[in-house]
Amino acid sequence: MKILFTRKLPEKLIEPLKERYTISMWTEENDPMPRELLLKEVADADAIFTNVADQIDKELIEQAKSLKVISTMAVGYDNIDIDEATKRRIPVGHTPGVLSEATADLTFALLMATGRRITEGMDVIRRNEWKSWGPFLLTGQSVYGATIGIIGMGRIGQGVARRAKGFNMNILYHNRSRNPVAEEELGATYCSLEELLQQADYVVLLAPSTPETRRMIGREQFALMKKSSIFINTSRGTNVDEQALYEALKSNEIFAAGLDVFETEPITADHPLLQLDNVVALPHIGSADIETRMVMGRLAIQNIEKGLAGERLIHCVNEELYK
Ligand code: GLV
Asked: HSE of 143 in the Cβ direction (CA atoms, 13 Å)?
């Protein structure tokens, strides 16, 4: 049976598979597998190991006549046509849970970097503009004791709330349903999206990408936020109206934004958001610490092995296939 890996993975992860399966792997470190080649390679694949950068759409799934399992090394699966996979009875595996703490770490790193203007500080030194200690040089917003508003209180949201608790923050959250753990153990207060946007010093977006969350934060929502507030997005770029975000930042309607995700990825150096000093941008690295990525890789491989053996995946998106 053939497993198609659309990205190069460490030998340590692949080695144990070599005896039992034919491995086809795209070996460029940084460039994604070209679409043409992907379509060609998937045609006789029994399993595909994919990631957020591949479009696993209807066209691809139709082409993959032998496909028995789709496994993504990610928690999000908005790049995969789940309905089409389900129609063809192909289970889709993903890697929830194991990346929550790493992603919460990065979310908090962006929160602190924007609040305290970390990258701007480094730029000042790089440009040789640091002349002396200044009483109001690069004054930012306080973090300790501030109000954080978490939109999407899932596993990652709870991780962020735990960190916020350590910083004595007042924690607000908005979610489809109430979260008793967040309320009872972390002291988070449930509120409407409007109240959260009006009150939070840090608005942290962690909602999954669905038709309902598409551009859920736009002009109207930025207008509700305080001038001193900071917007953090470590979920999906499609949840935000990027043009509205640009305008809110440019006109100082909000103080700053920390972004790990964008409407269309990758972005390039000429992207309008990168022309602003009050943006900290990262190349979608929320879960990228080495330990976490190895665990994610292993889990995604286990999902493949289960799928090829006709067994239930460890984490399956379209669970209804087993009913
Ligand atoms: C990354 O964005 C993921 O969904 O794991």
From this structure: 16
> What single string gives the DSSP state of each residue in 166-231?
HTT-EEEEE-SS--HHHHHTT--EE--HHHHHHH-SEEEE-----TTTTT-BSHHHHHHS-TT-EE
pLDDT tens across 6-36, in order?
999 999 999 999 999 999 999 998 889 999 9
**94 is known as an active-site residue:** no
Asked if the domains at 2-96+289-322 and 100-281 fall in one CATH topology, the answer is: yes
Domain assignments of the chain as residue spans, ordered by start? 2-96+289-322, 100-281
Pocket of ligand 1, candidates 7, 49, 50, 52: which has the most ligand atoms within 8 Å of its Cβ, to mutate? 52
Amino acid identity, residue 30?
A: N
**H or E segment at 109?**
helix 100-115
| Architecture of the 2-96+289-322 domain | 3-Layer(aba) Sandwich (3.40)
What's the pLDDT tens digit per position in 77-108?
999 999 999 999 999 999 999 999 999 999 99
Note the CATH number of domain 100-281: 3.40.50.720
Examine the residue annotation and report whether 284 is marked as an active-site residue of this protein: yes
Residue 173's contacts (CB-CB under 8 Å, 6 or more residues apart) are 149, 150, 151, 153, 157, 161, 179, 182, 188, 189, 190, 191, 196
139 within 8 A of 121, measured Cβ to Cβ: no
- Put simply, whether the predicted model's pTM sits higher than 0.90 gets the answer yes
C-alpha to C-alpha distance for 154 and 178, rounded to whole angstroms: 10
Which residues approach ligand 1 with their CB closer than 6 A? Answer: 52, 74-76, 99, 286-287
Active site residue 236: yes
Q: How far is CA 194 from CA 223, 233, 250, in A?
A: 10, 17, 22
Which residue in 265, 291, 311, 319 is the catalytic one? 265
Other beta carbons within 10 angstroms of residue 212's beta carbon come to 9
